[in-house]
Amino acid sequence: MIEILSIIFFFYVLVKVYISVMQIGYVAKAKEMPPVLMRPSGWIKSASYLISSERLKIIETLVEYILFIFWLSWGMRWIDTLTWNMSPILQAVIAVNLFLIVNYIVELPFTIYRTFVTNERYKFNHTTPELFIKDQIKGGVLTLIFASLLSAAVASIMIHVPLWWFFSFVLIFGVIVLLNLLYPTLIAPLFNTFTPLQDEVLNEKIKELLEKSGFKSEGVYVVDASKRDARLNAYFGGLGKSKRVVLFDTLLNKLTDNELLAVLSHELGHFKHHDIYKNIAMIGTILFIGFYLFGHLPTSLFMEIGVRETPAMFMLLFLLLIPVFLFIFMPLISLVSRQNEYAADAYAVELHGNREDLISALKKLVDENKSFPLSHKLTIFFYYSHPPVIERLKALGDKSVMNKSQGDDAMKGECHL
Predict the structure, then answer these.
(1) Distance CA 86, CA 90 (A)
(2) What percent of the chain has pLDDT over 70?
(3) Active-site residue among 54, 60, 80, 267?
(4) Residue-level pLDDT at 35
(5) 54, 259, 345, 367: which is the annotated catalytic residue?
(6) Which site among 121, 325, 381, 387 is 20 to 30 Å from 90 CA-CA?
(7) CB-based burial label for 406 (10 Å; 0-12, 13-18, 19+)
(8) Mind giving me the DSSP string for 160-186?
(9) Catalytic: 229?
(10) Active-site annotation holds for 267
């Protein structure tokens, strides 16, 4: 069994590296083509940024494989021996936290390099070392608190409940829904400052838009995203009464009011089509399958690894293999998400009443965020939660891209809204 898991993880790593290599080669060639949707300087810059990011991703994937070998061949036995005389619940808490801490230490250099080297080189980074350290401490403390509570609860369920995998799934899924409720009002403010939108004219236009779509919100807020990053974004956060409209301060500085309203109309399309609930249901289904499989792991696997069949070791195996499991479903998740984006664009045109504002906003987001508008089809297939931006513009009837061809099946790119 351990050989099968090792082979599966090896192919997972191989596929990820292959996708990155193909993406690098594709973008390197596209970099020499005439610019699309961008000025020449931005075209070169965004292509170089994407290539640098993919190269770093390859190294991270290889390190991920080394970590897998470490945990499976030695690390799990080390933790099992270290916690040998502890109660099953305490062992689970210590084991999960040690696993997270070791992985965090290994991944931290990549986070630092991405923030202060790659993003700094391409003028995206606004994070200071002091802010970075504060973020890491806050994020780390929150992660360990949640991990401790959840691992203790799951261990207790495993000890006392025969159908433990099902009730563990119910617990974890419930926490995911709860976090969606709490994130906008309790968690996000720990990292950013949210202030009510001060532009009364724009605020009134947004409220009219919300009322027109039937969206009841806690309010419209501006987040100080520019203190960390120069890129633009907007989103609707929360569920139920905690829903709020969040605008990046960078977005307000770059888009006109009408373009901003078009972007918000797109987001309201997700609300109107109940996409957040569909996504939660899809993730819930995938998690259910995952918990079922992990709940039926053979005893022989633990014997092969050389550890006891305890709640702690079940959890470590789950954490170790869940990236592979989720990766298998990534094409499906991405496909559904891309279809939702097309539908949200169509609703935005219907609600806002002017497709040119959304077209203009998409083009500005590509340019300002330096989102290289071409990508290899495998990258799109696995990773793109949003359709290629040129395909979105074509669907919106933008005549400037309707008949363009750059020598490939389609000009592929991604731009988040």
Answers:
(1) 6
(2) 95
(3) 267
(4) 86
(5) 345
(6) 325
(7) middle
(8) H-TTHHHHHHHHHHHHHHHHHHHIIII
(9) no
(10) yes
